[in-house]
Write a structure and sequence with these properties.
The protein is of the alpha/beta class. It has 14 helices and 23 strands. Strands 1-6-5-4-3-2-7-18 form an eight-stranded mixed sheet. It has a five-stranded parallel sheet with strand order 9-16-10-11-12. β13 and β14 form a beta hairpin. It starts with 10 loop residues before the first strand and ends in a 6-residue tail after the last helix. The site of flavin-adenine dinucleotide (FAD) has 35 residues, from α2, β3, α3, α4 and β4. One of its GO terms (molecular function) is flavin adenine dinucleotide binding. It catalyses: N(6)-[(R)-dihydrolipoyl]-L-lysyl-[protein] + NAD(+) = N(6)-[(R)-lipoyl]-L-lysyl-[protein] + NADH + H(+).
Length: about 500
């Protein structure tokens, strides 16, 4: 039986200002029972209005739950809409256009005159996209009867949250079910103090007011490479320092990672792999970063105007009052949950970046929907084996499922089919044919285990791979499916054909 639907009815009420003569026992009784009007009662309160929280709130509204969402930022959409996915993609898109106009028009028969960067306008275009989308969420809240409480929430009891309202004052919220969706923050680098001007995280990297002459990016993961690409295209000399022997993080297929590094290097980004940063000195005009080989040995000092710290993100639960209800985080700062997102206090669930799994907006979104389904119906669904990853550089890199090194390590017998975009008619027509599609399938059953793409629109093409894995498709299923001509998706079909037989055009 689903226990969470049974319990005291949720109540939202302003904190009572009590005369000092009221006995503490009476206060405790009041705060347990609540003195709100019936109209204010809630079934669910969500702390955090990021992708996980706002999606859960909208879904809860659609399911007929009385729901409130507490967000302290002042706008909805969390990291993703305000300082993450959306602003970074706005800058990636426009910096790519700028770079293309500078370097890739003549052979297309387009003569351009004086091309100038207007960084202020590029930032404005980004801000317009962000504000349009965050306001859109507010509209969706209204449409789906979600109450939006602006402020910082902290637990004062297992069913009770005190909100420090952004406009001043306090409000106490009680609810039958609570979802924590407080997200993540950039992991700091010990010894380098973030000022978001010279030593920056991705938040500073989407808001610089001039193009730095030189930028060192600490960390060659997706965020570091995306933001490094933006500033390299706009004219900065970018050096990426990465502790591991490959870029893109451990999830990226090693073959694809090598190809990505090669193209980004051609675009002017320098890489120092197997290298660790020891520390930095910010006292001079240039920042001085001491680095050495990861295994010890050769040391050198890198000069930079700006250092981007992009060594990962960590769950954010500060100030949430977890100690008041006895909830703890693990050694990585994640709130511990079961397969239905429940903490050890079953009516308190956790979704998104502040718990397990990849820190991705679409993963957070899936969990938002599933958590509400568990509350409302007792069942939900997220396939963690079919969550795609995308790096929005040019060319883009996208993958889903297992990479070759993972399949090899699992001991499963497998086969690989690849198809280069240089043999794809649409890519050739567009004069944008770098990259390849790589499909890994089980050697015995032909079931697709992983899809890895580097190339134009890889982030769009990966949707087909994700669907294939979700439905347990074989490479032959894909190879025998008609794909429109001429499209980039034909490269996907041909890679599938190469997996169980032979490609036609290569
Ligand atoms: C530069 C960058 C680029 C990215 N690009 C992509 C991408 O292209 N694709 C992708 O899938 N992912 C991307 N991500 C990751 C993505 O942004 C996160 O995975 C996603 O935002 C997680 O959603 P969330 O709701 O769990 O957390 P968040 O989006 O972090 O939202 C949590 C919210 O909770 C609020 N909050 C915290 N504590 C409290 C409290 N006590 N009271 C009230 N409110 C509180 C915070 O203010 C925040 O708004 C990117 C991230 C960054 C930094």
């Amino acid at each position: 039986m689903f226990r969470n639907l049974i319990g005291p009815r949720a109540v939202i009420r302003p904190t009572l200002t009590l005369p000092t003569v009221v006995a503490p026992s009476a206060i405790a009784r009041w705060s347990k029972r609540g003195y709100a009007s019936e109209a204010e009662e809630k079934d669910l309160v969500i702390i955090g209005g990021g992708v996980a929280g706002y999606v859960a709130a909208i879904k809860a509204g659609q399911e007929g739950l009385k729901v409130a969402c507490i967000e302290k930022r002042g706008t909805l959409g969390g990291t993703c809409l305000n300082v993450g996915c959306i602003p970074s993609k706005a800058l990636l898109n426009n910096s790519h256009l700028y770079h293309q106009i500078l370097h890739d028009t003549k052979n297309r028969g387009i003569d351009v005159g004086d091309v100038k960067l207007n960084l202020g306008q590029m930032m404005k275009a980004k801000d317009t996209a962000v504000s349009g989308l965050t306001k859109g969420i507010e509209f969706l809240f209204k449409k789906n009867n979600v109450e939006y409480i602006k402020g910082t929430g902290a637990f004062t009891g297992e069913h009770e949250i005190k909100v420090n309202l952004s406009e001043g004052g306090e409000q106490t919220v009680t609810a039958k079910n609570i979802i924590i969706a407080t997200g993540s923050e950039a992991t700091p680098f010990p010894g380098l103090e973030i000022d978001e001007k010279r030593i920056i995280t991705s938040t500073g990297a989407i808001a610089l007011d001039k193009v730095p002459e030189s930028m060192v990016v600490i960390g060659g993961g997706i965020i570091g490479l995306e933001m490094g690409s933006v500033w390299s295209r706009l004219g900065a000399k970018v050096t990426v320092v990465e502790f591991l022997g490959q870029i893109g993080g451990p999830g990226m297929d090693a073959e694809i990672s090598k190809a990505a590094q090669k193209t980004l290097k051609k675009q002017g980004i320098e890489f120092k792999l197997n290298t660790k940063v020891l520390g930095g000195d910010t006292s001079g005009e240039k920042i001085k970063l001491d680095v050495e080989a990861a295994k010890g040995g050769k040391q050198e000092t890198l000069d930079a105007d700006v250092v981007l710290v992009a060594i990962g993100r960590r769950p954010y639960t500060a100030g949430l009052g977890l100690e008041n209800i006895g909830l703890e985080t693990d050694d990585k700062g994640r709130l511990v949950i079961d397969s239905e997102y429940r903490t050890k206090i079953p009516h308190i669930r956790v979704i998104g970046d502040c718990t397990f799994g990849p820190m991705l907006a679409h993963k957070a979104e899936e969990e938002g929907v599933a958590a509400i389904e568990y509350i409302k119906k007792g069942y939900g669904h997220v396939n963690y084996g079919a969550i795609p990853s995308v790096m929005y550089t040019h060319p883009e890199v996208a993958w889903v499922g297992q990479n070759e090194q993972e399949v090899k390590a699992s001991g499963v017998k497998y086969k690989v089919g690849t198809f280069p975009f240089s043999a794809n008619s649409r890519a050739k027509t567009n004069l944008d044919s770098e990259g390849l599609v790589k499909i890994i399938a089980d050697a015995e059953t032909d079931r697709i285990l992983g899809v890895h793409i580097i190339g134009p629109s890889a982030g769009e093409l990966i949707a087909e791979g994700t669907l294939a894995i979700e439905y347990g498709a074989s490479s032959e299923d894909i190879g025998r499916t008609s794909h429109a001509h001429p499209t980039l998706s034909e490269a996907f079909k041909e890679a599938a054909m190469a997996t169980y037989g032979k490609a036609i055009h290569f």
